[in-house]
Amino acid sequence: MVKTIDKMIIKQFIPTFLIAILFFVLILEMVDLFANLWRYINNEVPVSEIMTVFLYYIPKCINLSLPMALLFAVSYTLGNYYANNELIAIFGSGISLLRFASTLILFGLLASFASFLFEEKIVIDTYKVKNEKSNMLLKKSQSLNNNNPTAIDKNGSIIYSANFYNDKDITLSNIIVVEKDDDGKLIQTINAEYAKWDTERELWVFHRCRQYFYDAETDFYVAKYSETYSNKLINAPPFTFQKIVSDVDEMHIRDASEWIISLRRAGLPFAEALTTYYKRFSFSLTPFIVCLISSAIGGKFKKNILLMSLLTSLIISVVFYVMQMVFTIFANLGYISPAAGAWTPFLFFCFIGFVLFRYARA
Predict the structure, then answer these.
(1) Are 211 and 175 found together in one domain?
(2) Same domain? 79 vs 189
(3) Going by C-beta distance under 8 Å and a sequence separation of 6 or more, which residues neighbour residue 149?
(4) pLDDT at 236 over 80
(5) Are residues 133 and 156 in the same domain?
(6) Cα angle at 208 between 206 and 214, to 5 degrees?
(7) Of the four, 122, 123, 176, 291, which is 20 to 30 A from 59 by CA?
(8) C-alpha dist (Å) from residue 9 to 2, 13, 100, 181
(9) Average pLDDT in the 88-110 region?
(10) What range defines the domain where residue 164 resides?
(11) Secondary structure string (H, E, C) spanning 251-281
(12) What is the Cα–Cα distance from 355 to 297, expressed in whole angstroms?
């Protein structure tokens, strides 16, 4: 009997889920299209190119739509059973609501793992291509030039500060470098008109610079002027000073992890990137959470099931995304840790799901 019930649930759930995910994907596609429509028109972008962007955006839309589609499909499926009084015999036979909905909850758990793999294998690459192509068609350019870049290299022993970083010429204007030893004692400071990156030797060459360094013979700090000066230890890579435009959402897990490590080593802000990195894991478990919540509230509606299921899906989704956005902002500003910013909304809704299930009508 139990196997028959599971098959009955899946038979009604799957078509509803597929229709729901198509509906939400279409909404996300339309939002993106109409947000850029006037730019496409102004740039006289061909319809074929717009459709290419449309197609590359589909995998990302599927991943974003999955939680909402599951929430709607589970609510609608269980609501139909409640409205038609089909569960009287099932609950009367001793089968609990948890056991009855366990197939849907298991589906949500499997969808979570599938969502993570789908994003890692397909979504990352297609979403990156979509953004690149969209920026090209809309003639958007991202400048890597940076005002007042500051960085720390070599475990804090070398500090860089400049007025401007020019990414085209790979130069730093009005650059000051402070070099210290392991005990924190000053080795030298360099004050140069500009520094240019030497791609062959992979180090910075300072031009028209004045050095202040310790002279052991005189036991005093002395000044020295040089037209050019270089030091193999002063070799922080140029990306250290670039304006940060890299998006962790467009990186694979391994690449994102290495990027965050490089930001941390360079002394650059990394909280935002780390929060986004953690969100990749927490968001992938959202299908499990929404299946848990919708299984508990799916039987609350006996009238207008389609409308109420849709409204419930949208309301819960909005609350979840707003909460996620707020905690992400707190994490980016340093009020909470990146891990807390990424996982708190998930844990909160997980708790809500279990509470709702505890007091749900059986």
Answers:
(1) yes
(2) no
(3) 160, 161, 162, 164, 165, 172, 240, 241
(4) yes
(5) no
(6) 75
(7) 291
(8) 11, 6, 9, 68
(9) 75
(10) 146-241
(11) CCHHHHHHHHHHHHHCCCCCHHHHHHHHHHH
(12) 11
Q: Where are the alpha helices (DSSP H) in the chain?
A: 2-42, 47-83, 87-92, 97-118, 124-137, 253-265, 271-284, 286-297, 305-333, 338-358
Distance set, CA 119 to CA 66, 111, 123, 220, 347 (Å) = 12, 12, 4, 59, 22
CA dihedral 118, 122, 124, 126 (to 10 degrees): -140
* Four-residue CA torsion sign, 184, 188, 190, 196: negative
Q: How are beta strands 164-166 and 171-180 bridged, if at all?
A: antiparallel
The yes-or-no verdict on residue 249 having pLDDT over 70 is yes
Rounded (10°) angle between helices 124-137 and 47-83: 130
Whole-number Å distance between alpha carbons of 93 and 247: 53
Whether 104 is in a domain gets the answer yes
Sign of the alpha-carbon dihedral angle for 307, 73, 66, 278: positive
Residue 89 has pLDDT above 70, yes or no: no
pLDDT of 303: 60
**45 lies in the same domain as 120:** yes
User: Long-range contacts made by residues 52-56, C-beta under 8 angstroms, separation at least 24?
Assistant: 52/133, 53/130, 53/133, 53/134, 53/137, 54/29, 56/126, 56/127, 56/129, 56/130, 56/133
Question: pLDDT tens, 126-148?
Answer: 998 998 888 888 877 667 788 88
Place of tokens 């970083």: 165
Q: What does DSSP say about strands 164-166 and 146-147: parallel, antiparallel, or unpaired?
A: antiparallel
Collapsed DSSP state (helix, strand, coil) of residue 78: helix
CA dist 259 and 133 (Å) reads 23
Domain count for the chain, please give it: 2
Q: Which residues fall within 8 angstroms of residue 219, CB to CB, at 6 or more apart?
A: none
Contact between 295 and 81 under an 8 Å Cβ cutoff? The reply is no
How many CB atoms neighbour CB 252 within 10 A? 14
Place of tokens 């299946």: 291
Rounded Cα distance between 35 and 272, Å, is: 25
Do both 83 and 212 map to the same domain?
no
Q: Are 90 and 102 in contact (CB under 8 A)?
A: no
Kindly state whether residues 167 and 111 are assigned to the same domain: no
On whether residue 80 sits in a domain, the answer given is yes
